[in-house]
Amino acid sequence: MSKNLIKHGNSLALVIDKPILELLQITADTPLELTTNGDVLLVTPVRDKRRQRKLEASLEKINQKFSDDLQRLAE
Questions:
Q1: DSSP codes of every residue in 26-66
Q2: CA 73, CA 71: separation in Å to the nearest integer?
Q3: How far is residue 12's CA from residue 5's CA, in Å, rounded to a whole number?
Q4: Distance between CA atoms of residues 47 and 71, nearest Å
Q5: How do residues 15-60 score in pLDDT, each as one tens digit?
Q6: Could you tell me which residues are beta bridge partners of residue 34?
Q7: In b/e form, how buried is each residue of 30-68, taking b as 16+ CB within 10 angstroms?
Q8: What is the DSSP string of 1-25?
Q9: How far are the Cα atoms of 26, 38, 54, 65, 68 from residue 3, in angstroms, in the given order?
Q10: Do 3 and 14 contact (CB within 8 A), yes or no?
Q11: What does pTM read for this prediction?
Q12: What would you report as the CA-atom Rg of the chain, rounded to the nearest whole angstrom?
């Protein structure tokens, strides 16, 4: 997808389409982190660290319990 920046006062703005916002569960109140390597701009929603740790722990349990089955499904 290609986007153009729009003028917003003395700044430029990037408009993110609604389907992308819904997919990433981003609202107007979601804080966003901007990072760059000097060539690429990455916009990442800031998530609750506790929530992220719970998700990672759950994924680890699933992988431990079902890794063989998941591997077979991936083939």
A1: --TT--EEEEESSS-EEEEE---HHHHHHHHHHHHHHHHHH
A2: 5
A3: 6
A4: 29
A5: 999 999 999 989 999 999 999 999 999 999 988 788 778 888 999 9
A6: 43
A7: eeeeeeeeeeeeeeeeeeeeeeeeeeeeeeeeeeeeeee
A8: -----EEETTEEE-PPPHHHHHHHT
A9: 18, 19, 34, 42, 42
A10: yes
A11: 0.55
A12: 18
Q: Can you tell me the distance from the alpha carbon of 13 to that of 9, in angstroms, rounded to the nearest whole number?
A: 9
48, 13, 24, 74 alpha-carbon torsion, rounded to 10°: -120
34 and 42 in contact (C-beta within 8 Å)?
A: yes
The CATH topology of domain 6-74 is Pemi-like Protein 1; Chain: D (2.10.260)
